[in-house]
Design brief:
330 residues; alpha/beta; TIM Barrel; 2 domains; 6-stranded mixed sheet; elongated
Length: 330
């Protein structure tokens, strides 16, 4: 198994607030080739979510120029029918198309032309265009599936969910968005009959070629929480003791009190061992801020309710001992 760090991003032709923002929502697939690529892709993802400069407009997005300014540490595929290439062809946007084709040709060492097996007439035309372009430039094809569901049961559930959300896509019945085995994938491309057999077999094989291009690297998974206090451990203990008094835990009958204190010690040792004391102090700081601004943070949700210390710090209002919740789940 190899970890592959990737993001199918939304792309817009340009980002210019003065000229006016457009919601064209084109797609491109960016894959980190190495650790530097991971950092580059993370920065691009953060940039796409900027709500002040026009990047975020209904969805997080990057401009076409930003995509084409990526380094060789990023591998790309041209994505589905929402690809900028297909959109440019559809709209007879010669300027955008020429810009894209020049970029793809110049970066053939790190780009793939993505074909898909769907029976929609536009997908068939796009596959044929990509095949011809691949032959003329030497840019490799790669097979994509646009998987949205694992199997038919999941696909049926997804349809219900999409209807509940009021989200509809034209001609979606022409697209099979379920996961495919190798044999099923070959059969689907054969049924589509858009390009020669040798071409789609090579495109399927190129998924392995692309994966082999990704270098082995180890992600830095160490905690990176802001340090709010010089002596976090001391402050954490103080906050816990304040919580014991505020919650009345110190006034419980001795046998009950013993259970609470033992649990506090267990949790404290765990937080210290995992290096997450600063995280808990940050959470308390956020919740305290909410209360001062009359923002109701909620009674508590998720596995954090299993932490007695979270209850003592008023991060949650759920007493995990009273409600018999498991701390290890958090």
């Amino acid at each position: 198994m190899k970890y592959i760090h990737a993001n199918e991003i939304y792309v817009t032709e340009y980002i210019d607030k003065e000229k006016g923002l457009i919601r064209d929502n084109m797609h491109y697939m960016l894959i980190a080739k190495n650790e530097k690529g991971v950092n580059e892709l993370n920065k691009l993802t953060s940039l796409s979510n900027n709500r002040n400069d026009g990047h975020y407009y209904f969805n997080p997005r990057l401009s076409l120029d930003e995509v084409m300014s990526t380094s060789d540490n990023i591998i790309m595929t041209t994505a589905c029918l929402a690809s900028p290439v297909w959109r440019a062809l559809q709209k007879n946007n010669a300027a955008m198309l020429n810009k894209l084709l020049e970029f793809l040709t110049r970066n053939k060492h790190r780009v793939f032309l993505e074909i898909q097996y769907h029976l929609h007439p536009e997908q068939i035309k796009f596959n044929q265009w990509l095949y011809d372009f691949s032959k003329s430039t030497g840019i490799p094809l790669i097979a994509g599936t646009d998987t949205h569901s694992l199997n038919e049961d999941h696909a049926a559930a997804r349809k219900i969910m999409m209807k509940a959300k009021g989200a509809t896509y034209g001609d979606e019945d022409s697209f099979d968005l379920t996961f495919k085995s190798y044999e099923e994938l070959v059969d689907k491309f054969e049924e589509q009959s858009a390009i020669p057999r040798h071409a789609y077999l090579e495109a399927i094989h190129n998924t392995n070629e692309m994966a082999d291009m990704v270098e082995e690297f180890t992600l830095d998974s160490s905690p990176k929480y802001p340090k709010l206090y010089e002596d976090s451990e001391k402050v954490f203990k103080e906050k816990i003791n304040e919580g014991i008094i505020a919650r009345g835990t110190n006034k419980l009958p001795s046998e009950h009190k013993k259970r609470y204190y033992e649990r506090v010690r267990e949790e404290f040792d765990t937080y210290k061992k995992l290096g997450t004391i600063d995280y808990m102090l940050l959470q308390k700081n956020i919740i305290d801020y909410c209360y001062t601004k009359e923002i109701y943070p909620g009674y508590g949700r998720g596995s954090v309710n299993g932490s007695l210390i979270a209850y003592l710090l008023k991060i949650t209002e759920m007493d995990s001992i009273k409600h018999k919740l498991n701390f290890s789940g958090f």
